[in-house]
Design brief:
By secondary structure, this protein is an alpha+beta fold. About 20% of the residues lie in helices and about 40% in strands. It contains two helices and eight strands. The chain has an eight-stranded mixed beta sheet, covered by helices on one side. Strand 2 (about 30) and strand 3 (about 40) form a beta hairpin.
Length: about 120
Amino acid sequence: MSNIVWFEIPADNVERAKAFYGGLFGWKVEKMPGAMEYWHLDTGGSDDAPDGGIMKRQKPEQQGITNYIGVKSVDEYVDKVHKLGGKICMPKTAVPQMGYFAVCQDPENNTFGLWEMDRDAK
């Protein structure tokens, strides 16, 4: 069975969102390395509990929280999404040395992500 492994919170004001979630839940917030403005949310749970990220909202009024579900193969699940009437919003994309993701939409217009761990991702 596939589980939620990551979540992303888009924010119009990233500093305000960081202060809110850090203050509310005690989550640690740290800038992720790299060029993109992205912050890791350490939820403090066990290693198998999902952590998340905060990023600048890309599509005002349309971009909500996105949950990422761990799968064995993004390619396989992208095919399943199509067959079951869903859409692909962002195709399979590598996160170097971490894995691959795709962002999808279900037939009810809810957005979710697929995540495949692969330390060899390029």
